[in-house]
Amino acid sequence: MKELTSSDIDDLLDAESTNSQRILKFIVYCHSQLCEKFLSQHSLNPKYEWLPIQTLLWKEARRRQLSNVGYVYLNGSIILLKDTTIWDVNGSDHLEKFVFPNVKFGFNQRKFLVSILPWKPYVEIDDETKEYKGMTIELLNELSRRLNYSYELKSPPDGKWGVVSANNLWNGLIGQLQRREVDLVAAPLVIDVLRETVVDFTQPYFHEKSGIIIKKPVTSYSKKVHVPVNSIVFLCIGLSLIVITFCLFLFEHFNPHNKNVAGRMKIRGLHHLSDAFWYVVGAILCHGGQHVAASSAGKTLLSCWWLFCTLMAATYSGNFVAILTVTKETLPFEDAEGLVAQNTYKWGTAGSTIFETILKSSELPERQKLWNGILEFNKSDPSVLSSDPAEQIRKVRGGYYAYIGERVYLDMAIGKSCDMSVISSSDFHPLLIAPALPNNSPFLNVFSDEIVTIIETGLILMWQQKTWPKRANCQEESVTDAKTINVLDFHFAFCLCGLGVIFAVLMLIYENIKRKWMITQHRRQNEQERKMSLKDIEISSIDEFYRNINPVNETPLKNAIRRQITDTSNSLENKRKNYSN
């Protein structure tokens, strides 16, 4: 093409018909306003013919060919095709963009090979049409409309998202981009430093959080008995009970007004330690006891104790009713550090995803412990690295298992059921989701600029509301009616009654054994006393007989009898003294 001046154009317009072949060698293209004005003045000259304007456009089968974009009359008149006309805000057409439509026609229906994997709620397969749908698909369609390209979807053969091996080769979606097998990955990939070394991420279109989901521990009502007050409060109440019991016993036992009452110790009352103890315990249970304080000091002490018991009972009862009415979750741990510190729960994450890359390459101590724990659990249970999130949720519902994943999927998994809970403070890694292109792609800025425009227009939020399932609140969170308490809920109360019966039976057995032992001891004591009285009678008879022996007329027989009687008497006396001692 030759650049023409105004004089050259004048020569063309004044040429004779014999020079028409020369005229056909030129296509008039004017950049300046002066040329446009000049051409418009001669647009009605009837002696010139229309010539097609062609440019290279992408067609089917991934090839380019010449296509008509308009026609120009040899006198300077121009006809623009309807689907190739580009208008500015004032309604005038831009000739430079018309002659070179690739400037604004994007990729001119070039077919891109796009790799994708389903991941709810970003990408999922429609049950009826068996086609992909979701927010990411809406974004892909909008980009194809704005950038004027078509696409063909395919999935990685291994069905993985992409993790790096020892030789720096990636599998899954990232591996396809690294090997340049596809032009674009539209799956919800998370931006990561390691992935950035082999692919180019566009502007992120969504920010996601991560979390840890576990099955709610079953909390029975028996475990809620100690919840209304702190354990320290229970300890202080127990110490107060011991101190008040001892003080009440001292005040009643050493009361000067009742000290000289005859037979006072045989009468039951608060001056006995056991009676004082049971009265103080009864006051805690708002019941009291059979006996009352006789001294002014004891009455004053019990008045303060009753006031203390009333306040504690009212506080405990109110808090206990509130706990039974409102469900309060008590989770076994609060964050990732608490997860690795306990020994009850196992944990895992979706294999070949961003979480495996994060945990494997992180230098933070708690994340290293998480990954080491996963490797240890994987030896006996390979499903802890299952890439299927549904399998991970099934393991969570099985109990004593924690799954690390993105928050939106965890909330969807909970749904209307109330059997699982997400650790709210476990957002240990923010997730930025964006499409990915091959490394050093020339299309990076083109896609990023369009994504920024889409975000600013609010389309992402609209697609999120359109395609994402509505977040269902747990049914227990919305229940306002009273709950029916069954036997299992209050089995601890029946257990207390059973323990009371068992303890009472043991006390009854103890009292019967003690009574029989006391009766036996009393009988033995009476028998000993009876025997001692008989021995005393025998000794007195021997003494009297000994005194009747006349010591004057001594004979050998009398001396032998006297010695025998003396030895026997001394022996009986010693035995009686030993018994008395």
TrEMBL record:
<feature type="disulfide bond">
    <location>
        <begin position="418"/>
        <end position="474"/>
    </location>
</feature>
<keyword id="KW-1133">Transmembrane helix</keyword>
<keyword id="KW-0406">Ion transport</keyword>
<keyword id="KW-0675">Receptor</keyword>
<feature type="transmembrane region" description="Helical">
    <location>
        <begin position="490"/>
        <end position="510"/>
    </location>
</feature>
<dbReference type="GO" id="GO:0050906">
    <property type="term" value="P:detection of stimulus involved in sensory perception"/>
</dbReference>
<feature type="transmembrane region" description="Helical">
    <location>
        <begin position="232"/>
        <end position="251"/>
    </location>
</feature>
<keyword id="KW-1071">Ligand-gated ion channel</keyword>
<keyword id="KW-0407">Ion channel</keyword>
<feature type="domain" description="Ionotropic glutamate receptor L-glutamate and glycine-binding">
    <location>
        <begin position="121"/>
        <end position="179"/>
    </location>
</feature>
<keyword id="KW-0813">Transport</keyword>
<dbReference type="Pfam" id="PF00060">
    <property type="entry name" value="Lig_chan"/>
</dbReference>
<feature type="domain" description="Ionotropic glutamate receptor C-terminal">
    <location>
        <begin position="111"/>
        <end position="470"/>
    </location>
</feature>
<protein>
    <submittedName>
        <fullName>GRID1</fullName>
    </submittedName>
</protein>
<dbReference type="Pfam" id="PF10613">
    <property type="entry name" value="Lig_chan-Glu_bd"/>
</dbReference>
<keyword id="KW-0325">Glycoprotein</keyword>
<dbReference type="InterPro" id="IPR019594">
    <property type="entry name" value="Glu/Gly-bd"/>
</dbReference>
<dbReference type="InterPro" id="IPR052192">
    <property type="entry name" value="Insect_Ionotropic_Sensory_Rcpt"/>
</dbReference>
<dbReference type="GO" id="GO:0005886">
    <property type="term" value="C:plasma membrane"/>
</dbReference>
<keyword id="KW-0812">Transmembrane</keyword>
<feature type="binding site">
    <location>
        <position position="195"/>
    </location>
    <ligand>
        <name>L-glutamate</name>
    </ligand>
</feature>
<feature type="transmembrane region" description="Helical">
    <location>
        <begin position="305"/>
        <end position="326"/>
    </location>
</feature>
<dbReference type="GO" id="GO:0015276">
    <property type="term" value="F:ligand-gated monoatomic ion channel activity"/>
</dbReference>
<feature type="site" description="Interaction with the cone snail toxin Con-ikot-ikot">
    <location>
        <position position="360"/>
    </location>
</feature>
<keyword id="KW-0472">Membrane</keyword>
<keyword id="KW-1015">Disulfide bond</keyword>
<feature type="binding site">
    <location>
        <position position="188"/>
    </location>
    <ligand>
        <name>L-glutamate</name>
    </ligand>
</feature>
<keyword id="KW-1003">Cell membrane</keyword>
<dbReference type="InterPro" id="IPR001508">
    <property type="entry name" value="Iono_Glu_rcpt_met"/>
</dbReference>
<feature type="binding site">
    <location>
        <position position="406"/>
    </location>
    <ligand>
        <name>L-glutamate</name>
    </ligand>
</feature>
<feature type="transmembrane region" description="Helical">
    <location>
        <begin position="276"/>
        <end position="293"/>
    </location>
</feature>
<dbReference type="InterPro" id="IPR001320">
    <property type="entry name" value="Iontro_rcpt_C"/>
</dbReference>
<dbReference type="GO" id="GO:0038023">
    <property type="term" value="F:signaling receptor activity"/>
</dbReference>
